[in-house]
Write a structure and sequence with these properties.
Layout: E1 3-5, E2 42-48, H1 52-63, E3 72-75, E4 91-92, H2 101-121, E5 128-136, H3 139-155, H4 157-160, E6 163-166, H5 169-174, E7 182-191, H6 194-207, E8 212-214, E9 219-224, E10 230-234, E11 237-246, H7 252-255, E12 263-273, E13 285-291, E14 297-304, E15 320-323, H8 344-357, E16 377-388, E17 394-397, E18 404-408, H9 418-433, H10 438-447, H11 459-466, E19 471-474, E20 481-482
Parallel strand pairs: 2-3, 2-11, 3-8, 5-13, 11-18
Antiparallel strand pairs: 1-19, 4-7, 5-7, 6-7, 9-10, 10-11, 12-15, 12-16, 13-14, 14-15, 17-18, 19-20
Length: 484
């Protein structure tokens, strides 16, 4: 199925949104939070967006001695962390063999950085380091994965050692995917409650007086000032800033219309499913990929939350956090930036598909088929992802907008990228403040392997992307393939 995307400008986040499982225990401190009753008139740095990118940028600014005297303001259109980070699948999963080696290494470092921060601060966000299993439904897709692993072994043998290929039927059954043609097992992944991580960061920064957070304050326009700064027009007035960090992901083109079609909104859908009675906790996270016999291309993902002692319905823990199903969604989610509704067809797919491809119960031989027609969902919700026209995130200074910086366009893969992308933007800002030129500073980041070359925002990259024919989208291994 091919869909042509006309690339309109994104809207602001919808006023109402579906109820994400991750928001069922919201930070009471952050709900409706405004550090000051009124917007400040002017600040040094404004961060637009309060997800993992915005929170990480604020943290790195607050931690850096070079910015100790800078005033930092964060503006959020809705509640704190109410966008994609508060609506995702709970994965932190580097694509070790499905990315160029320099990108794989960056994503792995990002995972290690997040894990170290959580452990050193004892943040209660259900972080769990675990292997991830990618199960392939067709021989063609499995062969393509094996070819990528072989190429990685030649380019970077150390990284390739993190990946195991599984083709033996008994081994596939041991990993709970007996119907797969083949699978890979990658040792470096994690699951977490992402909202709790971000809310901890934001609370800490506000309570230590390093951040002014203003929720329910939508930025509607950026205006260049004569002094070189920027005026940010909001739903509550105007604030000026010397530097602006856009952590806006799918909504970026609302403030940067020139990036319409460069970063496209895509609707994703999630579910929190109750596991079968007596099921033990899964040892892996999972990805399910490939074309089934019925022609449906699967690109779904799963983690499982820990069990707890409560036995009350829906609150016993162990939720199977299962997302995807875009192959059955209207327009496959492309171009949709409204997360106020779910698609009932996708919701039914998520409830009915998981126990068809994954052994959820530990069964004795000959126990028969215990599969229920569908699993019960405690929550079903949607979120808006920002997909990059050329797959790579967009990080750095925005051309022709001196003082405006961007870290967005993660293509549904933000958790193993956003933290260090935010750090890169902070490093760029502070180096430019110290007298460096933007081009020199960004090139130094690439040379020091601090940021992949593919991620940098450059005029040449933008020109190339804009020269491509109309975006054509078909669901593939990485969900969105842009033809060239």
């Amino acid at each position: 199925m091919t869909i042509v995307y006309e690339a309109p400008r994104a809207h602001l986040p919808s006023a109402e949104s579906t109820a994400s499982f991750w928001h069922r225990e919201p930070s009471q401190f952050l709900l409706g939070h405004r550090t000051t009753p009124d917007l400040p008139i002017d600040v040094d740095v404004v961060i637009v967006g309060s997800g993992i990118t915005g929170a990480s940028a604020a943290r790195f600014l607050a931690e850096d001695e070079r910015s100790k005297d800078m005033s930092i303001l964060m503006l959020e259109a809705r509640e704190a962390c109410w966008g994609a980070t508060g609506r995702n699948g709970g994965h932190c999963k580097p694509l070790i063999y499905d990315s160029p080696p320099n990108v794989s290494a960056f994503e792995l470092l990002n995972l290690q950085t997040v894990r170290s921060f959580i452990e050193s601060n004892d943040i209660p966000c259900e972080w769990r380091s675990l292997p991830t299993c990618d199960a392939y439904q067709s021989a063609e897709d499995f062969e393509r994965a094996m070819a990528k692993i072989q190429a990685l072994n030649k380019a970077n043998p150390e990284l390739s050692q993190l990946v195991e290929i599984i083709s033996d039927k008994e081994e596939l059954a041991n990993h709970r995917v007996p119907n797969a043609v083949g699978a890979t097992l990658t040792s470096t992944a994690a699951s977490l409650w992402p909202y709790k991580l971000v809310s901890w960061i934001l609370e800490h920064l506000v309570k230590t007086s390093r951040l002014n957070l203003q929720t329910n304050t939508a930025v509607t326009n950026l205006e260049r000032l004569l002094d070189g700064g920027w005026a940010l027009h909001t739903s509550r007035g105007v604030v000026s800033a010397r530097q602006v960090i856009l952590a806006t992901n799918a909504y970026t083109s609302h403030l940067l219309p020139e990036l319409s079609g460069v970063i496209a909104p895509v609707l994703g859908q999630m579910s929190a499913l109750i596991p079968p009675s007596g099921a033990s906790r899964l040892k892996h996270s999972y990805g399910f990929y490939g074309k089934h016999d019925d022609g449906l291309f699967q690109n779904d993902y799963l983690i499982q939350r820990p069990f707890n002692e409560s036995s009350s319905p829906g609150r016993h823990g162990g939720h199977l956090m299962f997302g995807g199903g875009r192959a059955v969604a209207p327009n496959e989610g492309l171009g949709i930036d409204d997360d106020s509704h779910i698609d009932p067809v996708t919701a039914a797919y998520l409830r009915r598909t998981l126990n068809q491809g994954l052994l959820l119960e530990d069964l004795e031989p000959g126990a028969g088929d215990p599969l229920e027609p569908e699993l019960k969902a405690t929550h079903e919700w949607t979120g808006i992802m920002g997909y990059s026209r050329d797959w790579a995130p967009w990080v750095g200074g925005v051309p022709d907008r001196r003082g405006v910086y961007l870290a967005s366009g993660y293509s549904g893969h933000g958790m193993p990228n956003a933290t260090l992308c935010a750090k890169a933007v902070v490093d760029i800002i502070l180096a430019v403040e110290a007298g460096g030129t933007l081009d020199q500073v960004q090139e130094q980041l690439v040379q020091s392997q601090t940021l992949p070359q593919q991620y940098l925002i450059t005029e040449a990259r933008l020109e190339h992307v804009r020269s491509l024919p109309p975006a054509n989208r078909t669901i593939g291994r990485r969900s969105l393939a842009w033809s060239e």
